[in-house]
Amino acid sequence: MLLIQEQMCHLGILLSIHQQHSKIDQLLIHQQIELLEVLTGFETNNKYEIKNSLGQRVYFAVEDTDFCTRNCCGPSRPFTLRILDNMGKEVITLERPLRCSSCCCPCCLQEIEIQAPPGVPVGYVTQTWHPCLPKFTIQNEKREDVLKITGPCIVCSCCADIDFEIKSLDEQILVGKISKQWTGILREAFTDADNFGIQFPLDLDVKMKAVMMGACFLI
């Protein structure tokens, strides 16, 4: 009986994800500013609002890490990110292990696992070694390469968005993009709260849309 209930719960979450993602070709991810972090400099668990192109919230994401991990490992820290729907139910889980952030260490590059529903992997995003460009590969649940992501050589910019292009495996067809949006001089200077946008085809497989969301959080 418990197994049947668990299967029905997973089916319900999958249906919810499909209904949400099938109608979406753009997502906006807004990191919330944590006042305690601004005042003390100590990293707190990040929280994000995920909205559609109309500005309606479709998901809420919260990081699940301990104090020592956040403040000792910094941006390279391992984390679990739980993505909740508007009813507070966890529908997607992102798992990122501890990895090296240096391009000089090709044996220990960044990666993230996307689970939808939680506990069921639907894809992975792995960093591809390159001497000067941030490059990533999107994989399906079988770890087969599906898409490529390439960012600019300089990943900081003043008064302009930074675009990471999502392309086909041969890098000839542009499928979509992930953009770090410029949020103004004060916010950029005094906080590490970022805004991102994701664009993809409306008819893209819903699993791949979830994986692209994971790619955005990895970036």
Automatic annotation (TrEMBL):
Cofactor: Ca(2+)
InterPro entries to which the protein is assigned, alphabetical: Scramblase
Matches recorded under Pfam families: Scramblase
Its membrane topology: Single-pass type II membrane protein
Family to which this protein belongs: Belongs to the phospholipid scramblase family.
Database matches in PANTHER family: PHOSPHOLIPID SCRAMBLASE 1, PHOSPHOLIPID SCRAMBLASE-RELATED
Listed name of the protein: Phospholipid scramblase
Organism: Daubentonia madagascariensis
